[in-house]
Request: fold
Amino acid sequence: MTTNRMLVLAERPTAEVTDACFELRTEPVPDTAPAGQLVVRTCWLGFEPAMRGWLNDLPSYTPPVAIGEVMRAWGVGQVVSSSHPEFDEGSLVHARLGWQEYAVVDPAADEVLAVPADLTSPMLMLSACGLTGLTAYFGMTRIGRPIEGDTVLVTAAAGATGSVAGQIARALGARRVIGTAGTPEKRAWVRDVAGFDDCLDHYDDGIRRALRRAAPDGIDVVFDNVGGSLLDAALFNVANGGRIVLCGSISTGYRPERPEVGLHYYQLLTSRSARMEGFIVSKFADEYTDARRQLQQWVTDGQLRVEHDVLHDLAAAPAGLRRLFEGGNQGKQLLQLAEPH
Amino acid sequence: MTTNRMLVLAERPTAEVTDACFELRTEPVPDTAPAGQLVVRTCWLGFEPAMRGWLNDLPSYTPPVAIGEVMRAWGVGQVVSSSHPEFDEGSLVHARLGWQEYAVVDPAADEVLAVPADLTSPMLMLSACGLTGLTAYFGMTRIGRPIEGDTVLVTAAAGATGSVAGQIARALGARRVIGTAGTPEKRAWVRDVAGFDDCLDHYDDGIRRALRRAAPDGIDVVFDNVGGSLLDAALFNVANGGRIVLCGSISTGYRPERPEVGLHYYQLLTSRSARMEGFIVSKFADEYTDARRQLQQWVTDGQLRVEHDVLHDLAAAPAGLRRLFEGGNQGKQLLQLAEPH
Reply:
């Protein structure tokens, strides 16, 4: 009999996510999936900033993870036992697997998707062709809507979402794509690999002026993953008719306390007839298939460069989540637990 | 020979607009208008919060008023001499007349408009059927876009723009229209005359919770004239898919220094797929005629109630502007200098 190892929430973090917030439990894996369900062996788990929000005991668009519950996470795994007609044993699926080596999932409830056969790597299902890439895609194409000649700013441009968002803007004809990132290595990657025109230091105290120099005619589209004072500096530099896409706010740490840094330049939205808009990617769920196909095409064409930052061992999962907030990851943070065969 | 009395900018205000910021000058009025121009006798001048911004020596979408220049203002006056084929002597016009008893205006440069014959009072050209009403109209119909069943919040609802905005929302089918205002008299007017369902005290420290009680399902459309902590409280209560129209920010006094109160709840725009958008009414200039007709129709039908707060004497002009920021006016602030005949 195979044993499943899982990390369950033991106590809610007050600030930083520590290893002690989770507890390792083991239990046997069923040999055969219950009727209508699947037993899936986790291959890769993905990490998103929103997961930090699920650890807060606060109402949101996703309910919090309960104490004693396996930490919720999206992953890609291989079906080891199937009692569902649409999923064959051996096939790869994307599902809400959680921080565990094996998951029993119900396609009717756990948003199970077959990994499309045309995907060049299953890991893309957790990055450029998964919810991360779809978030960048819909945020940029439906809210930011860069047109030819536009100047686009993407904050946290070395991140999984930001790097895709900036490359999409370029593919759509933006004249100038500027990023921000926290370390020299990341900035070099954003410029040299992801092909942004420029990448600024988002911890620079003079970022407001640096942005003015980098975009003297103003910024037409801001795709923001950071929030706080960096978003305020971007607001200060927004062009007439500009669009600010609120995707995330990593600077606030997704913590329950009221964020300390407020936006001061919002009045400029009035004098510049500009707009700031947030969105939840699931709003566009009906269009995922087409969007995923477009994203894969860009990857295949080399217009969309993707990097994965892969940790190993279930015990590293809390560190994987922490790395997002410490700026430790370069590209999409993943945790590999098994190799599909 | 007639003498013109005018108020010119003597020194820029640092905070509050004082009488000493302006200087009275006199000069003769030409008997005959120069070629292509008009001599207009000022009947009413209007006051808008944006005028405070013109006193700051800062670049904006409208250049600042220069030291020694007549204070810029929109007004309605009667043509006393015309050298322009489209404007007859004796007719009423709306133009950038400035703080003066007579103005020589050039229809090609000073945005001169004939007061439409179907207007039930020329004063409406400075309130519900003028730029104030047009601002409410386009902000509400193009950005806020309330639909049947929506809950709408208008801040500074006793103000010239806010009162029109709320009544338009009602005319468009909003289920519940809530206002905020600063005094019991204004709140009574907003409820009893302008017909809002409720009007809250916008100086109430517990406004965030008061709004939650007044709109337990969230606010679909916010039409904001105030900014600062009141806007933040409205943001906190925005519904899924909500639209926040940024029209003005009277709480910041339109002063050059960075506003002290930042927005903290902007992250909620993301989780609620909501939008905050500013605009400048001149963007819709091509559609003014139709909009004005609709506004007059609502006034005639009794669906749009308008109040004018009329001062007299040119020397009261600085006080007229101050009143907007002190909350002293009830309805559209005007200054009457002459009666048309």
